Amino acid sequence: MLTHRRTTPPIAVRRRTSPRGLSAVHAAALALVITGASLLAACGAIGQGADPSPSPDPTLSRTLAASPSPTPAPTPVPTPSPSPPWIPGTPWPGPVNMPILMYHHINSTPPTTALDASLTVTDADFARQLDYLKCAGYTTVSLSQLYDGVYSGAPLPQKPIVLTFDDGYADAFTNAFPALQKRGFTGAFSIITNFVGAAAAYMTWEQIGAMVNAGMEMTSHTLTHEDLNKSRDDIVRQQLTLSKAALEEHLQRPISFFVYPSGEPFRSGTPARQAQVVQMVQEAGYRGALTASNKLQQDPRAPYAFNRIRVSGGVDIRKFAENMAGPLPEKIGC
Ligand SMILES: [Zn+2]
Asked: What spacing in Å lies between the alpha carbon of 195 and ligand 1's midpoint?
C-alpha cells in the first residue's frame, strides 16, 4: 500500500516553477532559509529544557496540562519552490511545498507562562487566520485526501492545506471546532488516548466522536505522549499500537495517521533512530506520520516524516502568511 513511488528527476519539478518562482514571497522565503537554521537550533535547546511530561491528573495546573508539545520554534524554513508544482491527477513527482499547520491551544484565556503563550492562539487571531486562508483560496483537506493525492494522484484542490491540532485539548472542541465548522473547514486532531476525559483540560470521547461525525479527522499521538527517541522499543510499539486500537475501538473507524509527540525522534534523534521508529510506525499499521519540523516542504519519499509549520501565539497575520509562504494579505486584499 505504501509503495514509495520513484520520483522523477527534479528537473520535472523545476520546469514548472518559473511563473511564480521569483515572487517577493519566495525572495522572503530564501532570506528565511538563511536566518532559520540558527533560530531553530536555539529553539530546539529551549524546547528540550521546558518539556515536562504531561499528566492527566485533573488537579494539575493549566500550565502542566498544556505541556505536551512545548517546542517553540517561531521561524519555519520555507523552501523556495512553488506550491503546488504537481500536475493534478498524477502522483507527486518530488518534494512539494504544501502547508500542514500545527496548532495547540485555541482560546482567549490570558496565558500564565511564556510557554503557555507560545502554545495558545487567541480566538480572534485564529478567526483572522482562517478568514485569511479562505480569502486566499486555500481549501482544507484531510491527511487521507493528501496522501491519496501524493501517492495515487487523487484530485486535490488548487491550494490544499491541512490544519492540525495537537494533544486533544478541550478547547479543540469548544473553540477550534466551531470556528472551523463556521467556514466549512476541516481539521486533523491528534489524540493522546490515555488522557481522553482524564482531566478537564482534555476532550472526552463523546466530544471526539461528535467531531468525527462532523467530518473532522483524528490521529494518534500515543497513549501518554512518550518521547519516542528515548523510549525502549517495546514501549514505543505499545504506544503506537494501543493508542491506534483505542481510537479505532471508540470511533469505529480506521486510524491511519500518527503524530510524533514533541516531534521526536525528528528533533534530537539520530538518523538511525529515526529509521527505527519509522519502521515501528509502519509496522503498527499507520499509513503516514507527521513531525514538528517547522518546514513547508513534503517529500513523497518520506511518508512517515511529513513536516508541519508551527503556529505560535501572538503571530500577526502578515507573519502567519509569510511563515506558510502564502500571499501577503495586503497584496491580495485579504
Ligand atoms: Zn503533543
From this structure: 12
Confidence band of 32 (pLDDT split at 50, 70, 90): very low
Q: Is the preceding peptide bond at 84 cis, omega within 30 degrees of 0?
A: yes
The model's pTM is 0.78
C-alpha 30 to ligand 1 mean position (Å): 29
DSSP string for residues in 65-96: HT-S--------B--SS-S--SPTTS---S-E
221 CA distance to ligand 1 middle (Å): 7
Mean pLDDT of 162-182: 98
Q: What distance in Å separates the CA atoms of residue 17 and residue 21, rounded to the nearest whole number?
A: 5
CA-to-CA dists, residue 155 to 14, 263, 303, angstroms: 22, 29, 18
Candidate from 15-24, 214-223, 272-281 with smallest mean pLDDT: 15-24
Centre of ligand 1 from the C-alpha of residue 119, in Å: 11
Query: What's the CA-to-centroid distance between 220 and ligand 1, angstroms?
Result: 10
How far apart are the CA of 333 and the centre of ligand 1, in A?
35
Distance CA 281, CA 289 (A): 8
Residue 73 CA, ligand 1 centroid: distance in Å: 14
Instruction: Check pLDDT > 80 for residue 176.
Output: yes
- Gap from CA of 316 to ligand 1 centroid (Å): 23
pLDDT for the residue 213: 98
Say whether 200 sits in a helix, a strand or coil.
coil
